[in-house]
Give the backbone structure.
Amino acid sequence: MRITLISLYLSALLCSMAPLSVYAGPHTPYFIAREDENPNIIIREKKERIEFTRGDKQNPVWVKEKSSTTYRCNEFRGTIPVVAFYNDYSRIDEVKAWVNNDRFKVKPEHRYYAIEDIFYADARICGFMLPFEKINTESRAEIEKTTLDPRYINAIYFPEEYFTASKEITIVIPRWMKAEIREMNFAGSGIQSSRSFDSREEADVYTFTASNLQPSKSESDAPGPSHIYPHILICSHSAQLPSGNTAYFGSLENLYSWYHSLVADIGNDRDAVKATAASIVQGKDTDLDKIKAVYTWMQENIRYIAFENGIAGFRPVKAQEVLAKKYGDCKGMANLTREMLASLGFDARLCWIGTRHVAYDYSMPSLAVDNHMICAVNLGGHTYFLDATETYIGFGQYAERIQGRQVLIENGAGYQLARIPEPGFEQNRQTEKRILRIEGEKLTGNVTHRMTGECTENVLSQIHQIRKTKLEEALQEYLTNGNSQYTISNIRTSDLHDWNTDLTISYDLSHIDAVSAFGEEMYVEMDFRKELSNATIDTLKRRHDYWLPYKRGMVQETVLQLPEGYKVKSLPPALRIDQSKYTFSTTYEHKNGQVIYRKEIIIRDTRLQRKDFQAWNNDIQKLRQSYHEQISLVKK
Amino acid sequence: MRTFIAIFICLLLLISGMMAQERKPEAWDLKAEKKYISRQEEVKEEVWSIKQAGFRNRMVPAEYAKESAVVLARHVELITPQKNVKLHRTERNLVAINDKAALEQYSEFEFKQYLNSDFYYPLEPFDKLTKITYIGVRIYKKDGSMREIYGNEAVVTDLVRKEHKTRKLAIPDLQVGDLVDYFIREEEFMKTSNAFSKELFVLGEEVPVLEYSIHIAAWNEVFALEYRSMNGAPNFKERFDTHMIHLDMLVRNIPPVPRNLWMNPFRQLPMVRAHLRPGARNEKAGRRKEGMIYGNPNAIRIRDEAISSGGYYPEYAMPSQDAAKNFVAKFKKDHPNATKQELAEFIYYIHRYVLLYRVWPGDPIVVDRRRNYSDPGRYAFLLSVKYELEKNGIPADIALLTSRFGPSDTDVFTERDYEMMVKTRGDKPLYMSAVGMFPVTTYIPDDFEGQKATLVNNGEITGSWEIPFSKAEQNKQLNRLQISLKADNIQQLEINRETTITGHFKQRTQQQLFLFEDYYDKEREYLGIETSFLDEFAATKGSRALVEEYKNAFSKARRDQKEQFLLEVAEQFEKTPQSLDSFSLVEMGLRSDKPDVVYKTRFTMDGFVKKAGPNYILDAGKLIGGQISIKPSQRTRNVDVQMPFARTIEYEMELDIPEGYVAEGVDKLARNVDNECGSFIVKPGLGANKLRLHITKTYKLAVTPAAKWPLLLEMLDAAEAFREQKVLIRKVG
């Protein structure tokens, strides 16, 4: 699906060269910023005015945005990039700048904007370098932009790339325009809002003011911006124009109706894909097997390439074209999946969905709600959701990014709402069993791994990126953590091209110098992998919640055969941490001449909130401490 | 990432010229597109009709069935089809796609459809300034069917009116098991800047190439051809006809050559360099006679051309030479008894100071780590230094030599293959190089070691100089660690570390950890320059405001320095410390009499001490940090081991054993692997509640013959295995 300008805007924030900390000039207030931020440049004031205006015949309503940003140099002069984004639905009308109150001649550059992992997008960037004359001076940039269709005006964010001392957003909605404004993530932000009526313009004027806004910050594994930053969501309902009433997104019906209009006339030729579909399911007896076969074929044979191009960002490519080219974006892949299944007589439908990156659901009729498309198929009263962009996930399994998300399912003129199932950690299992014995100062034996769900997907997606001549070595490096003393041989794997069954890997192990012998005693470290031992979150630097990639249940068991003539001298204590979002446990058991070490790590909820960080860090510390325990054996 | 994007945006904004907002294709673009498609038709007919047998091959030999991809045929052609008007370069490849990694590699092509060579003018396709690229792809399916796609069907991903139009082509219907046959044709008008075309053909890559053909043809009235075959590559077949001179080569069955650890491709892989260049009526230095082919030209002649074309005369000196000259005059006045050696050193350092250290009011304020990567640029800088040396009666030569990682002196092909240094004459020569901000006058860059330099003075050869390899003890990292187990948590180590860095290790450390503010002051102190740029700025009304700004910038750079020290500790131990409690630079190594870099760090590490009942296990081996692990595929090799330089990494550790505990198993830590290629020696000791470890790991040679790789492996394996070694800290009583 289309990436929105919001994400472009936020990526522009990454360009920040210098956010803020303390400014203490005469007659000016103190602005307090965080220790980890750069204090050189701040935004002293930003005023942003968003106004709905009459457009032209083709686009009867335009949205004019005018921003004026005054930057202040607190420490030393330099230049900063000032950028604005636009695309096929919008244009930059004017760019002006002032340096220390003198007009600064601007030659903005317009470029295509390359977005990581997107093959092609219609996003454009317009920008220029804004200098500062010297310390304690200000430079100002004014940008005017027109969005040609109010459908594409969605979220207006408050945080900027720099610390912002004062920000005012004014939204002017003439009475002929019906639009709804929602305040998102305002709690605790200190943002003030007011509403007035401009009788001359016959318009409602919404004013939002904020002060001392911390700059936005890009962090790995963080929730999407709609989850974490205060913003205004504008939902354009309709416009009463002299030419008549123009409906936008006043309700979910409107939104669906627009979506449906885009997919209704794609030009699919079902007959053109039928033969392929029939050949795929040849020999499959049950309907479920047929659906599974089509889904798996899609995953294996259609490459995901993301296109974001104008209206094509919302309209799938014809199914027969995707089939012929063997590549497509999520819409194209969902559409081909639907057409192939429908050609076999199944009730398959397109679905719009927002991944977990998006904070909204369809209670808001807005293009901001979804960013992805998948296929649903109804069989025997059950709905299966098929996302072929997840190349290595098994049928009936769901990636974390769509689990539990609301999904808008096509249903002729109407629509259906449903939710993607949210399987627990049980979907993503990862077990490792080691049967070991002591030979001198080595541990030897055999090891078996078994993986399911996203654990399988994670491993297979890495495996298939590696040239097959290097696969065995890469697999060996992965399994040995790059430790050449942990030597493995005779590797056997299940079929690496079948992700509908458990992925298994087994091998023989010889871990050299894993046993430390001192006099009559031996010391053995039973945990080799020590997962999560580096998972402490830096609470001084981390600003946002931390989202783990997926839920999972990990079990490791090491059975150590005690050597002849030795007995257990001491075993480490057990560890059991049970939190609502995760469980860590380690146990040591001595029975039948064996020591059995069992570790279980369960991630039930991937969303670690900032309030969870302290407990998480404490628990990781305990887990790490448990990794730092060894068993000791002594001669009888 | 954040920095990268910021830099990218800055570059994007700075480099490009102004252009209008691109909404729909403009008239010039639409018009060009028609011409492009028309020409594309001609090109594809021409390229697809190449008669090389390999392009009819559809079979992957069984021996290569497990390869990710196999190049069944490759043809590269460089020709001047119309006398001296145009230059066409074509590359065509037929590749078997054997796995998803290869599928990914060949599934997309990005290319600059139009590339303007002169940004002063707007891009006009098909004019004399624009290089045009055509792409065509055929996909052969297993069932014998074939489909095609061409560059005009690619999406436009960037268009900058003064620079280029870039497109991206997604290859349709490409699957594992298919063959992809693609060509890339570049066409441009000949002009001064591109008439000299350089080609490098490497006959050995990650995947096998079954058939590799090369054809170079040039109009004999205008051009000359020359080539150099290196490292066992075959020679071209030369052919002359009425109007053209030709070079042809056909090589079959080139096996895959994995890029191995410590390889030196320029000296170890078969390769051919070729030039298509404008000829001259008469042959002389730097010129080739038109219509002639020069196969494997005499290296001495290339060297002589380098000497004569380079000139190495003072008129090429850097513009700031006058400032340096004034400083030299002052030095002589202030130090009438200075020796020639002291004067020579001053001349070198003052030139570098003038070029890289001095700050002007109009300069952008850059005082953070970026400044540490400044480089004087060899040519003008070294010529200025030499000129000033000679003017002050200090005889010196320019040393011309090739990099150890470039062509050898017997394989030079162009004068640009040569690097340079300045070497003073006499019993104790000084070496003056142009590699960064920090070298001292006894330093010879690592890639010059083992090379034979020609000494040149005012265009005349004055001698030669065999540069020896430095010894392992000259390039050393010495870590002195005082370690104690933390009183309130015996499993945490408090480490006081003093690190001494010498030789070739220095530059990276200096670039990572130094602050301009510090070394600027130190350099001034050495050079006797009393007035800092801040003093100068403060004295002038127009620049006074800059003083505070620079102080702020210094302060910011100093705040960021801790992060670099933290990173340095984390890299050393392959583990981020719990805390970095203090750090300081003791010596910066900016002069020959104090050449070592010395710094101190104090930090706390976790995870090196394990608990076992009442006792503790110290992961003593892990205190030497990460060690290189040799992969199974790297364990056998038939090419020499080419490392940057011989080196020693040394640790002197002293660990306090806490009261109530004793250390056991210390003797078992002893190691003594010592052979002609390397050594790994561990000398443990115990005494007075202290555990002492003296560990040295030495790479004795920069170049180890392949036959002796097992000896080096022995040392590397010993060091890696040592990481598993432990000491028992036993509770007494």
Observations:
- Chain A touches chain B through 82 residues (CB under 8 Å).
